[in-house]
Amino acid sequence: MKQTIYIYHTNDVHSHFEHWPQIARFLSERRREHRARNEAMLLFDVGDFLDRVHPITEATRGKANVELLNELGYDAVTIGNNEGITLDYHELDTLYERAQFPVVVANLFRRDGSRPSWALPYAVVQVAETFRVGLVGVTAPFRHFYESLGWTIAPPFEMLQTAVAEVKQQADCVVVLSHLGVNEDEKIAATIPDVDIILGSHTHHVFPEGKQVNGALLCAAGKYGQYIGVVKLEVEDGRLARTSAAIVDVATLPRSEEVERHLHRLEQESLARLEAERIAELKDDLPLNWFAPSPLAHVLASALREWCQADIGMVNAGVLLEPLAKGTVTKKDVHRICPHPLNPCKVKLRGAELKEIVLEANTERMKHLRFKGFGFRGEVMGEMVYAGVDIETELEEDGAWHIRRITINGEPLDPERLYEVATTDMFAIGHFYPQIQRAAEKTYYMPEFLRDVLAWKLAQ
Q1: 3-state class of 88 per DSSP?
Q2: Per-residue pLDDT tens over the stretch 30-88
Q3: DSSP-derived 3-state class of residue 340
Q4: What's the fold here for domain 278-459?
Q5: How many CB atoms are closer than 10 A to CB 236?
Q6: What dotted CATH number matches 2-269?
Q7: Is the pTM of this model over 0.90?
Q8: How buried is 106 (Cβ within 10 angstroms: 0-12 exposed, 13-18 middle, 19+ buried)?
């Protein structure tokens, strides 16, 4: 007896709801079509479905995202780093309390070593009388961040090997929901032979027709809901005979007007909720310039220095998207101008290293660097703005301004002295400034984001 099972998957949507009306209509129609043909259909999400850059997610702390997954009948999900480390402990612990699907994540534990009641290491889905699909989920082990929030995150490969071995005894096909990235997925396929399919995410890669590695089919559907992944399982006499993969370009799909109206209502309610939370009353405008010192950026640099109790504060002006006008400032305003899920971080740097960073940050290349990732949701890096640092520049024959002298809190920079530098975790985990990335001593401040520190300073 032959039968076909279809698996649909999304990943790294990051609250990009602009594509959700197409996704919702397509998946709802496909579910009806498969049901009419008596074919099994499964639907999974592979993490980072939420992102606090969007006001709906910010105002509901992801609860609205879970409702959207419920409405489409998702069969299982795993968590990404945006679920895991951009919510505080209680918010993650209650995120899925109304979920109508299992959350599979084998490597997340409470501090005492127990599993959260809402997180399963694996699940087994009976899709036909004689065929079961086993699911194992794992997420990226950002250990310092999880520990700062009160969780324990285990190395994923140890957990995977154990969970896959257990689920293999109960299932005819083993599917891994992997929020680890493409390199780790290839390593899973190469080292854990019982895995049949890996649905990948985290590195936002795309496999238009899947990729075969050591007998496992690797699948991935990019980012931001631009694609939907489709995996076809061909089963013969209760055994998996063949697998194949494809992606659907969401831009080509018709939209659901009903879902569009629903999202609009959710967004208006969320914006109203954020606007109702008053932060401060400004007596003057706080202008912003991405490429020159400006008052609003300096307020944030000063706030970081105070919050982290550091010698200096240092932040790129590009993390602020708009200035603030005098008058009432609300949570809506602060979220709009600083939407990134970025946390404060304190690092210890030698003066010589700090000087290298200041010189590099002052280059036109770095100021105009455009990038996405590491929590940054803006457009451009912008000028580095400091609190506690004075820089003397001189116009030279090449027509450019060059740094001639750096002082720290009124004293000349000492190349051998250790300085405590308050900045953003983007620099601690990203590759922008190797001196910060490789620093031996780093302290992360969680769950507060940069906008929370800015709001705290404005309220003073």
Answers
A1: coil
A2: 999 999 999 999 999 999 999 999 999 999 999 999 999 999 999 999 999 999 999 99
A3: coil
A4: 5'-nucleotidase;  domain 2 (3.90.780)
A5: 11
A6: 3.60.21.10
A7: yes
A8: buried
